[in-house]
Design goal:
Layout (H helix, E strand, L loop, with lengths): L9 E2 L1 E10 L1 E7 L2 E6 L6 E5 L7 E6 L6 E2 L3 E4 L2 E8 L2 H4 L5 H6 L4 H8 L5 H11 L5 E6 L7 E7 L1 E5 L3 E2 L3 E7 L7 E6 L7 E6 L23 E5 L2 E5 L5 E5 L7 E6 L9 E6 L9 E6 L13 E5 L7 E6 L20 E2 L7 E5 L5 E5 L7 E6 L11 E6 L5 E5 L2 E8 L2
Antiparallel strand pairs: 1-28, 2-31, 3-4, 4-5, 5-6, 7-9, 8-9, 9-10, 10-11, 12-14, 13-14, 14-15, 15-16, 17-18, 18-19, 19-20, 21-22, 22-23, 23-24, 25-26, 26-27, 27-28, 29-30, 30-31
């Protein structure tokens, strides 16, 4: 006899308001405004007045530069906004690069489609994209002193796919991008002193990425690449996908150098998405939080989850705890096209609370007061229109403690903790 499970969609969190907007890849909140990078063209970047959380209002929107690009990441510092420009459907479209080689082996279109894991009708789409090429990748810098009328200051072209997630501060942009001569994304740091003309000051890559210089790739395809690097004091904490993470000394911004490295065991199937340390020490020791990104899940394998790392000794970092969420926590696990595991946390660890998005698991709030025993203290799962699964993708928290939860497919929720 099948037992019905009653799912608790929210605990210690209440919803104050929200918007039915196109899904997004990143949200940043500053001074009463939320900045959302949308996942898919023709949507680009929205600026939303959230000073009244019960009635948020879109006050401005900027489009992607063309129909082939998405601008799903955004960062803000003062009156400067930076948005990425990246090839939309990049992983799918790059499969077209293999078609010629497969044809040379004598495969017909049906066999090629099977080999690439696509439909036969996708073959001409892939070939068209290959012929068209992609030359728009990079990032754009905006003046947002007038929130209702963002002004484009500069457009920096990079290479290949273009720019993915990145960090910035009042001085520099820490860009994760493909560059000519490298395999996979690397770190390129740009000086923003003149936002109308950002200038490159340095690069960093892992050994094996710079193939134009004769290096031999260490990973499979794009498995060993920078996802993005977060600036923390004079350090950069770089998640490098299936290669784990690296810690860089950035005290000399012209010559970032590696000072720490951690590679997760091969048994861990999901890549490292984000890593950064807590701002404060606990009992005299320093800890960092790393989070995986869940992809297409294979039954029987581990989902993506969160790691708590003791990083007191940068040269000898080690995990001291891991946190996972049971599939039983979400009523949507197993539905077609629904991701469930970990993705991203709020990129500001100024206390022991970690606000983490878990795709169909919604928002999970963990307390790391005891780093060896992470405890969930609150959660929120927002049922999408029509009863669809949440695909919670990014989260930020404003200066008043309000939580902004962005869905990958549709919707923004503004929340308040009730602890």
């Amino acid at each position: 006899m099948k037992r019905e499970i009653e799912y608790q969609l929210a605990r210690n969190i209440r919803r104050l308001g929200g918007l039915d907007i196109a899904g997004g890849g990143q949200i940043v909140v500053q001074d009463g405004y939320a900045f959302v990078g949308h996942m898919k063209p023709p949507m680009g970047t929205s600026i939303i007045d959230v000073r009244n959380p019960a009635e948020p209002k879109v006050v401005a929107h900027v489009d992607p530069p063309d129909e082939w690009s998405h601008t799903h990441k955004v960062r803000v510092e003062g009156d400067i906004m930076v948005t990425n420009v990246e090839m939309d459907r990049r992983h799918f479209l790059r499969k077209g690069e293999k078609i010629a080689g497969l044809r040379a082996k004598g495969l017909n279109d049906a066999d090629i489609a099977d080999e690439l894991g696509v439909k036969m009708s996708d073959i001409p789409v892939l070939e068209e994209a290959l012929d068209r090429g992609y030359h728009s990748g990079g990032f754009r810098v905006w003046d947002i002193s007038e929130k209702t009328a963002p002004k484009l200051l500069s457009y920096v072209k990079t290479h290949g796919f273009g720019v993915h997630r990145f960090d910035m501060d009042e001085n520099y942009a820490y860009i994760s991008t493909e560059m000519e001569g490298y395999v996979g994304n690397i770190l390129v740091i740009y000086d923003l002193a003149d936002p109308t003309n950002p200038t490159e000051v340095s690069r960093w890559h892992m050994p094996g990425q710079h193939v134009a210089a004769g290096e031999t790739p260490t990973g499979n395809g794009y498995s060993h690449r920078l996802h993005h690097a977060m600036r923390v004091g004079d350090e950069l904490w770089a998640a490098v996908w299936h290669a784990g993470f690296r810690v860089l000394d950035a005290s000399d911004i012209a010559k970032p150098r590696q000072i720490g490295s951690y590679v997760f065991p091969q048994a861990i199937p999901e890549p490292t998405h984000t890593v950064m340390p807590l701002e404060q020490t606990i009992n005299g020791r320093r800890y960092a939080v790393a989070i995986d990104e869940e992809h297409d899940h294979k039954p029987g394998r581990l989902h993506g989850f969160i790691w708590i790392m003791d990083v007191t000794d940068i040269e000898n970092m080690e995990p001291v705890a891991a946190w996972d969420l049971s599939e039983r926590a979400s009523p949507w696990v197993g539905e077609p096209g629904v991701r469930f595991g970990a993705h991203q946390y709020r990129e500001n660890l100024d206390n022991t609370l970690v606000y983490a998005t878990w795709f169909a698991g919604g928002l999970r709030v963990l307390d790391l007061a005891d780093p060896y025993m992470p405890m969930e203290v609150a959660h929120f799962m927002s049922e999408r229109p029509g009863g669809g699964a949440p695909q919670s993708n990014d989260v930020d928290v404003d200066e008043d403690g309000l939580v902004y939860l962005l869905d990958r497919n549709n919707g923004l929720d503004i929340l308040e903790m009730t602890l």
